[in-house]
Amino acid sequence: MECHVQKNKNQCTCTYEPCSRKGKCCECIAYHRKHNELPGCLFPPEVEKTYDRSISRFISCYRSS
């Protein structure tokens, strides 16, 4: 399966610029899963900027919606 890194980068909402996984969604998901986190693209922009990628933070974002 082909990975469209540049297309993914263009759509990536992660604000952590030195990230080596930007545009490599499979690597990003695996990395965050290993750390009991979720990727930044799943969070609202104002929360993503805090770099709190915890599952509990994700739940709290959408529990009040």
TrEMBL record:
It comes from the Bacteria. This is Cytosolic protein. It comes from Desulfofundulus australicus DSM 11792.
